[in-house]
Structure to design on (286 residues):
């Protein structure tokens, strides 16, 4: 990732300079009695004098400062210049605006069970295709997406009754509601795909993923949605939502939530992982 590579490069350069400097000091000390040495960046460094350890600490802190102030705030997620201009309001799908009830609207990839009373040969378990259609015996292709299961029952019964059956009784059940799933990805503790189970807000979806991880950026919460065949997105500030300064947006089935990484937090994490705390403890007075 861009931010992590940049911070690692800053750290490697600084510690490399420290190793070369201390290596020169050790070699220029004359042909003194050989003291214990340690390896820093593949070079032998005299670990006898305490000032050597403090010198490593100074270079290490310089590396961290370089990471934080020298451009490591660059996001490692979606392009920062593009996401910064994203709106903080998501458009709603037309199908969701058209219904004020809590009835679920069938979506592409949902799995339906269709049964015809006393005609078991016509019973089918079908999956809605990408264009929102299903195929049934005798009646052929039926547009299912954007309709409730009750609407489908009436439509399929009408199709059967027009030519093949007298007063057919059709039942449609939702077996697997793929359209009720929300994807949470990026800098969270447990990325995954979660069932919405009715209405779900952005903070609830992030809570399902166990919250942001240690490098997650609360101000870089992106939500993507497909509306009228176009992928649109919006940017939200989780801290502002929790403080009540920004509304907690309602998610829709099929939405994707991406949590960006904080460049500063990523740099600090890389710094901690690359250098043991004992190396810069003297500079902290520990």
């Amino acid at each position: 990732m861009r931010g992590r590579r940049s911070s690692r490069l800053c750290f490697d350069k600084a510690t490399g300079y420290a190793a070369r400097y201390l290596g020169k000091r050790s070699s220029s000390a004359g042909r003194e009695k050989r003291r214990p040495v340690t390896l820093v960046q593949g070079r032998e460094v005299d670990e006898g004098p305490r000032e050597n350890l403090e010198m490593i600490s100074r270079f290490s802190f310089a590396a961290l400062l370089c990471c934080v102030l020298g451009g490591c705030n660059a996001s490692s997620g979606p392009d920062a210049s593009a996401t910064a201009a994203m709106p903080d309001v998501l458009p709603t799908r037309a199908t969701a605006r058209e219904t004020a009830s809590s009835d679920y609207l069938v979506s592409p990839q949902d799995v339906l069970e269709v049964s015809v009373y006393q005609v078991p040969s016509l019973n089918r378990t079908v999956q809605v295709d990408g264009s929102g259609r299903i195929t049934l015996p005798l009646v052929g292709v039926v547009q299912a997406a954007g309709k409730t299961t009750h609407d489908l029952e009436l439509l399929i019964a009408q199709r059967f009754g027009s030519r093949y059956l007298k007063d057919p009784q059709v039942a449609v059940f939702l077996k697997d509601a793929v359209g009720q799933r929300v994807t949470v990805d990026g800098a969270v503790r447990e990325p995954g795909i979660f069932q919405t189970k009715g209405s779900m807000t952005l903070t609830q979806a992030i809570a399902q993923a166990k919250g942001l991880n240690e490098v997650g950026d609360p101000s870089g919460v992106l939500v993507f949605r497909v509306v009228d065949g176009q992928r649109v997105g919006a940017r939200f500030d989780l801290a502002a939502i929790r403080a009540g300064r920004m509304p907690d947006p309602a998610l829709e089935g099929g939405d994707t939530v991406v949590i960006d990484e904080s460049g500063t937090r990523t740099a600090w994490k890389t710094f901690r992982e690359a250098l043991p705390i004992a190396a810069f403890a003297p500079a902290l007075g520990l």
